[in-house]
Amino acid sequence: METKILSGKPVAKRIKALTKEMINQNDLKPVLVVMIVGHDSASEYYIDSIIKQGAKQGVDVQIRKSDSVSSDDLAEFIHNFNSDSNVSGIIVQKPLPKSVDEHFIGKLISPEKDVDGVNPITVGHLYLGLDCFIPCTAEAILEIIKFYDIKTEGKHIVVVGRSNVIGKPVYNLLLHKTSTGNATVTVCHSKTKELEKYTKQADVLITAVGSAKLIKKEMIKENCIIIDAGINKIGDIDGKSVFVGDVDYDDCFEKCQAITPVPGGVGSVTTSVLLNHVVRSKKKMQKIK
Amino acid sequence: METKILSGKPVAKRIKALTKEMINQNDLKPVLVVMIVGHDSASEYYIDSIIKQGAKQGVDVQIRKSDSVSSDDLAEFIHNFNSDSNVSGIIVQKPLPKSVDEHFIGKLISPEKDVDGVNPITVGHLYLGLDCFIPCTAEAILEIIKFYDIKTEGKHIVVVGRSNVIGKPVYNLLLHKTSTGNATVTVCHSKTKELEKYTKQADVLITAVGSAKLIKKEMIKENCIIIDAGINKIGDIDGKSVFVGDVDYDDCFEKCQAITPVPGGVGSVTTSVLLNHVVRSKKKMQKIK
Description:
The structure is a homodimer. Chain A is an alpha/beta fold. Helix content of chain A is 39%, strand content 17%.
């Protein structure tokens, strides 16, 4: 059987259509604030993509920079966005300067506008299965599972990675009693011994570990499904840098049943999830008024 | 090698000593409110044990009953305890009447006094690895791991159960980067197929599923360590009811390296953890004043 490529593009397209519909039906003017704290971050590419996609979908993306890293200044800075009724989403660009505690920042963002799920209140809701904004990349993974109708109930899903933004929300959501949950889940990470012992058992393998081409074909089960959220920059043979996943795509391609490409997989869904959150938040705010 | 019995008693004893020390050193008069909502709950035994242990350890345990199950009445009821500076801990007895949403109640309890970790803010802190009150039975399991110096890093720990109060906090904490974390964790539950496939792999098996004697010796690995948080009432041969765990203790005893008894294991640590939380909370409140 031919391997199926789980492209992120049609998934993103469907989310964008829903976002557009929500904007039009409710005549919304959503604004997302992207905060940059301290020095410029390394992820300009991601910010550019948010601005461009925002423009296409009708979300005004505003970049706001705080030169100060003092706690008081940051609290005031974020407080202004929280109380600005035009703003319906706030995200803080990572990585943050080392002197700034990410949880301190997370707690400052009002849960209503916490579109990337970093406030402990949002996190608590996620963990308890209550309504909340799920961190965008984690939700992108679930959207791929939904779109391609990947069955999770009773399946053995191995998640490699335990970060607050991807691995942790994903493995928790896969255990919830939902249509994308009820899986038997194994979580692996940097302290796991004999990683292949676990990855080889996976009906569905999800990687979010940031280690280029870590997973080789000897480490996977025949006919498994692979969702690769890793985006690792490596130098290619011509001296130009290219992006690859945590899975060695070419090596694993023939052995698996289906696989997300990198780029063009999980990453290409994330921004559309983010903008969808901003619009959902705006819709809620409008109703409350 | 002889099987080691992981009794909860010395673990509880150590926690009680720490609690006592904290009370004496700070001259505290801690008060725990145990709320009973609507009809009387089935768990009088547990409440009795809290009152008795509280009296011994210097924690005043007060039972407060709300006959009403209306949201407004409950909110006012809990609000009074939140604002009462004598009260440093609030728990709500379960099971709740069906008409009352446990998350609604959880959100009402001030995080500072949320000694059984049910408020989403508390839960978010736990999940992010921040300071908080961990649900008492989950913490009791970790206390047993600490006390008996059970190594978790790089070990394969299989958790059977995914409840908000035991399974879920336990599997998350085992994945944190702490001395009781860094394990490779597999989570099983009612939708898991071929449960024994997973339990057989466990270096450490933790059960919290509420199914009497579910785990038999064929389902475990030679020399594994078993921590059994199940407490199931069954009728014994004389017609009297007895309590057994999720693990068939007699059946598994010789094959495993160590095992917690039921009763006398995890359950016997839980109340001392709860009272310790009440005193920790009181100490914090005193410092803030």
